[in-house]
Amino acid sequence: MPLTRRAAAEAKPASTSGSSTLPTASKFKRAFQRGQEWEKDDLQTVLFWALNALSCVLGVACGALGLTGYFGFLTYIVTSFVGISYYCTHLLDVDTDEFGGKSELLQEGYMSSTGLFLFTWTITYTFVYVDLLGYVV
Amino acid sequence: MISTALQVFLYALANAVLSELIGYHFVYKRDDYQSIKAGLERTTKRLAAEEANETNRSNQRKRQRRIDELKKQVQVYNGKASGKSMRLSLVTAALQIATFYYMSNYAFPNITVAKLPFTPFGFVQGLSHRGLDSDDYTDCSAAFLFLMASLFIRAFVQRYGNWSIRKASPFAQALEQAKEANL
After folding, report:
1. Is residue A122 domain-resident?
2. Is B172 on the interface with A (CB under 8 A)?
3. What count of other Cβ atoms lies within 10 Å of the Cβ of residue A25?
4. Does B174 touch chain A if contact means CB atoms closer than 8 Å?
5. Is residue A111 part of a domain?
6. Which of A24, A133, B58, B83 has an alpha carbon within 20 to 30 A of B89's alpha carbon?
7. In chain B, residues 14-53 whose CB comes closer than 8 Å to chain A
8. Taking CB atoms and an 8 Å limit, are B152 and A4 in contact across chains?
């Protein structure tokens, strides 16, 4: 279907800074303040980085503590879900249902955070238990 | 072992940055792509505003018609953007596959780069144990570590550059389709 004339006229080139309505520094300052008004795109960006930061910390913690197998995966799934829910409801004080729910807000973060968790878990486990302590051969 | 793993990480980083720079040079910085991106953002915002706008019953049909029209426009923009970035996707996929084969066959052949804290199941073992002779399935090949690193590095580089049109993950798209099917 061709675009309507009005839509085509509105489609002007955008700056390369992206679709975000706020500068990055301001966005991350607000990420630690309660009860702010959020644009969906900004909230998605903040939650994307929050989930990835949490996954990185969890990966390092699981690796350092020597968690293996299903126990490590279970820890990641439960802790990341609880952590992000707590961050949204208690720290940001945002009603995620207004933005289509958590699954929509975090849709871009699932894959990368899982990859980051697996990577940091593996690297930390290898570093601590193979390179440093030499337990696993 | 950790230094080899860090080398694999650097390969993944270089691969992701190179892919994104190729995309920026040949597709994302062009005016036609930028106009599609701007149009899509504008239409998506209008659609969200229209959907949030509560009207009385007499205007309901009019509002629904406007929403349908905007949804079609979003589809058209998405189609155009996919057309523009299709060749780019092929190039980046080829680059990734080439790096993958280079690493498992030439750069790190039969080298355990890390120890997995879990035993991968089924078909994943084919990747995690690719090119390794040992019987221990917690040994991790360079190819598998490269894939794990690529999963997040690509997303980070794309997020940082913010040049391309962001797409929902396949999981989110399936969720959206299920929602629409229920309605």
Report:
1. yes
2. yes
3. 8
4. no
5. yes
6. A24
7. 28-29, 31, 34-39, 41-43, 48
8. no
Residue A52, judged by CB atoms within 10 A of its CB (0-12, 13-18, 19+), counts as buried
The whole domain housing A127 covers: 61-137
Quote the Cα angle for B140-B142-B145, to 5°.
70
Query: pTM for the complete prediction?
Result: 0.78
Q: Is A89 part of a structural domain of the chain?
A: yes
- Rounded to whole angstroms, how far apart are CA atoms B2 and A127? 6
Q: How far apart are CA B179 and CA B183, in angstroms?
A: 6
Whether A5 contacts chain B with CB within 8 A = no
- Whole-complex ipTM: 0.78
b/e for B151-170, b at 16 or more Cβ within 10 A?
bbbbbbbbbebebbbbeebe
Task: List the 117-136 stretch of B: residues with Cβ below 8 A of A.
Answer: 117-119
Count Cα atoms within 13 angstroms, Cβ side, for A135: 10
Nearest to B117 among A107, A115, A125 (CB): A125
Q: Which of B156, B153, B148 is nearest to B113 (CA)?
A: B148
Helices (H) and strands (E) in chain A, counts: 6, 0
User: Cβ neighbours of residue B11 under 8 Å, at least 6 residues apart?
Assistant: B99, B103, B107, B146
| Domain count for chain A | 1
User: Tens of pLDDT along chain A (137 residues)?
Assistant: 444 444 444 443 433 334 455 566 676 777 777 777 777 778 888 888 999 999 999 999 999 998 988 899 999 999 998 888 888 888 877 777 777 777 777 777 888 999 999 999 999 999 998 888 877 65
Tokens 């279907």 -> residue:
A1
